[in-house]
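The step that takes the researchers longest sounds almost clerical: writing a folded protein down as plain text. The outcome of that step, for a single protein, is printed below.
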Amino acid sequence: MHKRVMDPADTGRSLMLVLEPLVRFMRRSAASGDLSPAASSMLSRLSREGPQRLTELARAEGVSQPGMTQLVTRMERDSLVRRTASAGDRRGVVVEATGEGLELFERRRFERAQALQHMIDQLDPADQAALAAALPALTRLVNAGE
């Protein structure tokens, strides 16, 4: 069987065709709690960047402020985040992850990493090495998009 060499002009499409099912698999692979993709993304951001104003979170996550308020309300009810008044502007609301929220997020990330590692372990060594070699470029790609 002849392997097709990836056309550099088609790399974005090819990468998307590979990543879409991989992302779906990763979303299904974690058993820890009932954390939606939106909640997981927000906890990820809060764990990396620390507490943020609700308006900043909404903008960074690409959702409306009312949508973010609803998400924060649900997550606060589940003790995953807490709201406090902004020190600089009492009308503003700052959202921060709780210890419980960060623990759930890290547990879910660990479970996903284990599931992904199990898949990688099924590949032949050359494919495993190719994935490892691609990680720096993929990291730069993600960082360029932020």
User: Anything to note?
Assistant: The chain has a mean pLDDT of 87. Helices lie at 11-29, 37-49, 54-61, 65-77, 99-121, 125-145. The CA atoms of residues 12 and 18 lie 10 Å apart. The chain has six helices and three strands.
